[in-house]
Amino acid sequence: MQEIKHFIDGAYVASASGRTFDKLDPSTGEVFAKVHEAGEAEVDAAVRAARAALKGPWARMSVAERGAILHKVADGILARFEEFLAAECRDTGKPRSLASHIDIPRGAANFKVFADSVKNVAAETFEMDTPDGAGALNYAVRRPRGVIGVISPWNLPLLLMTWKVGPALACGNTVVVKPSEETPSTAALLGEVMNAAGVPKGVYNVVQGLGGNSAGEFLTAHPDVDAFTFTGETGTGETIMRAASRGVRPVSLELGGKNAGIVFADCDLDKAVEGTLRSVFANSGQVCLGTERLYVQRPLFEAFVARLKAGAEALVIGAPDDPKATLGPLVSLTHREKVLSYYQQARDQGATVVTGGGVPDMPSALAGGAWVQPTLWTDLPDDSSVVTEEIFGPCCHIRPFDSEEEAVALANDTRYGLSATLWTENLGRAHRVAGQLEAGIIWVNSWFLRDLRTAFGGSKQSGIGREGGVHSLEFYTELKNICVKL
Ligand code: NAD
Question: Given pLDDT bands bounded at 50, 70 and 90, which one contains residue 476?
Fold first, then answer.
């Protein structure tokens, strides 16, 4: 049985309490690892190590030296690509084809991009008049915030964790990471890569464990963490924000969504079908940016639903090592219960089940896994729980609309504001609708096309702040104004 420990001050350590929890393979339901659960003692040791490292060689390095080390971290991930891939797929159940194209390469890119972009950060300068006529010069400098608490989810574990660790380290901070209890492996493996790349001990620390009354809560309660960056559910974000308010500590929150897709009758049909299928079913629907509400202009509605049904039914459900698999299991049996409860609610609320709606028949070796069928519904009322609440599964409700104004109103009728996608060949309409949609990220005729220099984050209850490019560098630094009397 594999044992997964904390990574504190450059070394792997067990919990003093001896407490562990089981990690299940989502495709079989079998336990494959014992994960050490951090108590307050391990969290305190990690925070102390991170605090001490702020005074060590890491702080004395030039931006270029730190950048060179972070490039080595990225290269180290790529050199051990197969190990990272195997660990990520085992934790999540996702197809290897997906993780090898997205999760692991982006995990490496997150270090390279921010190691380079931090070199280009500028700050403001103001020359001012003074009564004696000599004047004064104001200029700003950026400094690391200090110890950053990083709390990350399970859907894209390495990608989303390094999305925060990369820029935090590039800016000279140190980190204590609390990965999701569902996905402890790649954060742990990254410790070896950090050591091999020459990252000084204490700069990157990992505490394993759960959220409430466990490692997550102990980390946010620790007074010596300077800022928190979190990706996860909106409710958890509220809890973390409350904890961070003690000591007035900044938070960056990337939270849940209930993202709309809008398909106009003037779209390129093939591209819209292909993109929509990806946005609904990629990663078994466990993507914060995924489409769970689809609005299709009436003349195209029947044909579009038929094309989506055919696409959903052509997905190949299978375990990560099945080369034909395009749809893996959900991350856990617990999450499957949640998704299946929405499948039931859809039936109870009068949905027409276009396809799916249940559990697929799997071969006996996989029968214990967290499988659900890809599912499409129509005919639910706009206030149905299935249409208003984030499900985070391979499912979507499809509803017709008539006018552009109606589509915008329907898409905006949500407490969330993470992303929205629209499909049209009408340039004026594309810009007009994109400007009116209430979300932090809008895609026109594409989905999940990401440039890491751009602002990433949500409005309304989908988050606070933006990460990506200069926005990450702003969050992970303090701006200090220096006024010099001439
Ligand atoms: P979650 O909120 O349940 O857990 C996220 C992390 O928070 C985990 O590490 C968990 O252990 C920890 N946690 C839970 N309770 C805590 C507490 N009281 N104190 C401190 N830490 C705590 O989210 P999840 O189920 O892992 O991830 C799915 C959610 O993440 C979805 O809502 C999805 O939309 C969202 N998400 C958002 C983005 C984005 O960029 N906006 C990206 C990916 C996922």
Answer: very high
The reply to whether ligand 1 has any atom less than 6 angstroms from the CB of 295 is no
Closest-lying ligand 1 atom to the alpha carbon of residue 182: 26
Comparing CA positions, the residue from 232, 287, 257, 266 lying closest to residue 447 is: 287
**236 CB less than 6 Å from ligand 1?**
yes
The preferred substitution site among 231, 286, 336, 466 for testing ligand 1, maximizing ligand atoms within 8 Å of CB, is 231
The reply to whether 158 and 138 lie within a common domain is: yes
Q: Is 239 in the pocket of ligand 1 (CB under 6 A)?
A: yes
120-166 tens-digit pLDDT: 888 899 999 999 999 999 999 999 999 999 999 999 999 999 999 99
CB atoms within 10 A of CB 131: 5
Domain residue limits at 445: 259-457
Looking at residues 439-455, what average pLDDT do you find?
A: 97
Specify the number of domains making up the chain: 2
**Distance in angstroms (rounded) separating the CA atoms of residues 75 and 301:** 47
Which residues, 6 or more positions from 27, have their beta carbon under 8 angstroms from its beta carbon?
93, 319, 320, 328, 329, 366, 369, 370
**Cβ neighbourhood burial of 29 (10 Å; 0-12, 13-18, 19+):** middle
In the structure, what pLDDT confidence band is assigned to residue 479 with cuts at 50, 70 and 90?
Answer: very high
Distances (CA, A) of 281 to 287, 288, 392: 9, 12, 10
Q: How far is the CA of 159 from the centre of ligand 1 (A)?
A: 14
Nearest to 75 by CA among 118, 109, 114: 109
String of DSSP letters for 342-376 = HHHHHHHTT-EEEE--S-----GGGTTS-----EE
Question: What is the DSSP code (8-state) at residue 202?
Answer: T
Looking at the structure, do residues 41 and 55 belong to the same domain, yes or no?
yes
- Looking at residues 211-230, what average pLDDT do you find? 98
Query: Which residue minimizes the CA distance to atom 28 of ligand 1?
Result: 232
Do 26 and 154 share a structural domain? Answer: yes
Ligand 1 lined by 335 (C-beta under 6 Å): no
CATH of residue 304: 3.40.309.10
How many Å lie between the centroid of ligand 1 and the Cα of residue 255?
A: 7
- Write the pLDDT tens digit of every residue in 350-407: 999 999 999 999 999 999 999 999 999 999 999 999 999 999 999 999 999 999 999 9
Same domain, 245 and 267: no
What angle separates helix 63-79 from helix 157-170, to the nearest 10 degrees?
A: 160
Q: How far apart are CA 304 and CA 186, in angstroms?
A: 39
Note the pTM of the prediction, 2 decimals. Answer: 0.97
Pair (312, 241) in one structural domain:
no
What is the distance between the alpha carbons of residues 428 and 432, in angstroms, rounded to a whole number?
A: 6
Q: What phi and psi values does residue 380 have, to the nearest 5 degrees?
A: -90, 150
Catalytic one of 89, 171, 288, 396: 288
| CATH number of the structural domain spanning residue 120 | 3.40.605.10
